Amino acid sequence: MPSPVESPINEHPDHTVSGTAAKHAWWWIALEVIAFVGLCYLYASAPAPAVNEAHYLIKAKNFWDSSFCSNDFFVTSGKAHTTFYALFGWPTLFFSLSTTAWIGRLIAWAMVGFGLQQCCQRLKLPVFSSTIVALLWIAGIQAGNFAGEWVIGGIEGKVPAYGLALVGLSRVIGRQWKQAWIWFGMSSAFHVLTGGWCVVAAAICFVVTERGSAWLPRLRLPPARDSQTKAAPFFCWQLFAGGAIALFGLVPAVMLMRGVSTEDATLAAHIYGSFRLPHHLLPTRFPTLWYLRFSALVVLLLLFLPRQTHRPDRVQESADSNGAAARLFYFALATLLIAGCGLVIGYSYHWNPDFAVKLSKYYWFRLSDAIVPLTVALLVIRWLSERPVSVPRPLGLDLMAKGAIALGIVIFTWGAVQSARFGIPKSCRHRYLGIGNEPGAGIQRKRFADWLALCDWVRIATPEDEVFITPRQQQTFKWYAQRAEVVNWKDVPQDAQSLLQWKQRYDHLFQRQQGDLTYYTVRVPIDYRKLRDFRATYGVRFMVVDNRVVSPFAEVDQLPLIKIYPVGEQENDTFSVYELPYGHNR
After folding, report:
1. CA-to-CA distance for 459 and 482, rounded, in angstroms?
2. Domain extents for the chain?
3. How high does pLDDT run on average in the chain?
């Protein structure tokens, strides 16, 4: 990999010089990355596991230790993110899951921070611009995402993938196409959709910037290179090398669809897209607010469309910066084009649902959710730092840029305060468990303490191969109790065959009542016949009961089952464990 202290000559692809080596020395880069990691910690300082961390790291632990939850249906299902499991899962052999999560967070945040610093460097932004860009970016994703995407939070496969993708984007900005393909290939190895969509966006950007220099000015769009400069080649050995590296992420994903009939594959797509994850995949299910907030980001992107700036004292640097900003802008437009295709596919659900769900599973809005706010942040900071004071500025854009920074600081601070004030993992907060209105921090800490007490008892008092029926509104039982579950709403498998089985198990256990989706309409029925059936079908002896779900219908202590926790001097106001009844033949 070329040294990041080298500065690309933007009009001559894949050539580098070290003219700004002193300005961007390695120790400056390290300081910027450390500052970025510190910013991430302020924003996402809640204890592990964050949302999705339990989902990823329990599979990573099983990848390295096959005895861990070896009889859990989800843990042993097909593994799509083997590169992540291999590179980020091995610490589970020596450390707890929580420590492993923090190791992964710090490494992944550093990767993202390095990628962001590289983007700022190639846009020729001032040193340490990446810190304020990061703040605006994080705030932009939080307040403006279209489909629920996030980058900074817990550790999962897409976070290191974004870090590598940002380095690739910096090479696109610097017109170093050959290097970009390698970085995008490595990103795809960690998360095939994150890196794969980057390849598509970069290819579109390449066509526009390297083949469109003649017609861009006619459309009053900023050119990315001088028309006299030789265009870069598209096909090169680095493109194919990047594709080969991407196979580490692509092959496991493709293998998940093996041995499934067309009918079952379609049914699995419906379960994944329209039942389990419509809030990420089907735009017909998105609230109007999501459309409005993302549209505001797109408007900002267009308002800060890269303008040709000129500094008489830095003619060549101004030209390089203009071309770099134009390539960033066209990359962002390419992500919007991908999202536009996703909108067409999503709305086709009304007349061809099979077609829509089969294609919507590729997360068409993921990249635009991350790149559009990033581009806005970069262009805003460029606007405020690039033009010399002697050149008049449009007052409206100046005020808008400064207002965006002020609003970003407010949004970031609000998110950081919310993360810190509860003092419990994000994955255990009511808001992220679908439990109606979120009560105060004190109430949630008490309920979380009860959850930990329950899981500690399960881990200590039951055999390692025990299987449990667990409440619908939780996602961390395996993380804390280290015991298998019959089914878990959050832990949805990704291979088609297991996905069908997951839906069958979920419908079998959680037979929804009439009315809105609430605590009390999705629960395990207290019915002897059904409970015996569960025991016979899944080999499960024990059921964890959330007392808040049961209490509107019966006194907790009057359930017609044998309670095994809490008993005697044990105390737990929120959760109980009951033994399921035997069949008649017992």
Report:
1. 6
2. 7-12+43-256+280-422, 430-579
3. 87
- In three-state secondary structure terms, 571 is coil
CA-angle at 45, arms to 41 and 48, nearest 5°: 120
Contact (Cβ atoms closer than 8 angstroms) between residue 205 and residue 327: yes
Cβ burial 207-231 (10 Å sphere, 16+ → b, else e): ebbbebbeebeeeebbbbbeeebee
| CA gap 564, 544 in Å, rounded | 10
Rounded distance between C-alpha atoms, residue 50 and residue 40, angstroms: 13
Bridge partner list, 484:
467
CA dihedral 87, 91, 92, 94 (to 10 degrees): 150
At residue 487, the 3 state secondary structure works out as coil
**Residue 399 neighbours by CB distance under 10 Å:** 11
- For the stretch 138-169, pLDDT in tens is 999 999 999 999 999 999 999 999 999 999 99
pLDDT the model gives residue 216:
63
DSSP 329-362: HHHHHHHHHHHHHHHHHHHGGGT-HHHHHHHHTT
Tokens for 167, please give them.
């380095």
Q: Are 561 and 579 in contact (CB under 8 A)?
A: yes
Rounded to whole angstroms, how far apart are CA atoms 348 and 97?
A: 42
**Nearest CA among 377, 304, 373, 367 for reference residue 335:** 367
Over the stretch 183-234, which tens digit does the pLDDT of each residue have? 999 999 999 999 999 999 999 999 998 887 666 665 555 655 655 567 778 8
The residue with tokens 């900002």 is 300
Tens of pLDDT, residues 448-502: 999 999 999 999 999 999 999 999 889 999 999 999 999 999 999 999 999 999 9
DSSP secondary structure letter of residue 168: H
pLDDT at 16: 43
User: Please, which residues bridge with residue 7 across strands?
Assistant: 17
Residue type, 131: T
Q: How far apart are CA 429 and CA 305, in angstroms?
A: 40
How many other CB atoms sit within 10 Å of the CB of residue 491? 20
Average pLDDT over residues 173-184: 96
- Maximum Cα interatomic distance, the chain, rounded to a whole number of Å: 92
Please say if the pLDDT value at position 522 is more than 90.
no
pLDDT at 1 over 80: no
- The answer, yes or no, to whether residue 125 has pLDDT greater than 80, is yes
Residue in the block written with tokens 């008489």 = 312
**Percentage helix, strand, coil, to 5, in the chain?**
60, 5, 35
Residue 482 makes CB contacts below 8 A (sequence gap 6+) with 68, 69, 459, 464
pTM given for the model: 0.90
CA separation, residue 368 to residues 144, 277, 558 (Å):
11, 18, 53
Token match 């526009």: residue? 208
Tens of pLDDT, residue by residue over 386-423, are 765 445 667 688 899 999 999 999 999 999 998 888 99
Amino acid found at 586? R
Position 367: which residue type? L
Check residue 517 and give its pLDDT.
Answer: 45
Cβ atoms of 356 and 282 closer than 8 Å: yes
- Cα distances (Å, whole numbers) of residue 437 to 430, 433, 434, 443, 519: 8, 11, 9, 12, 11
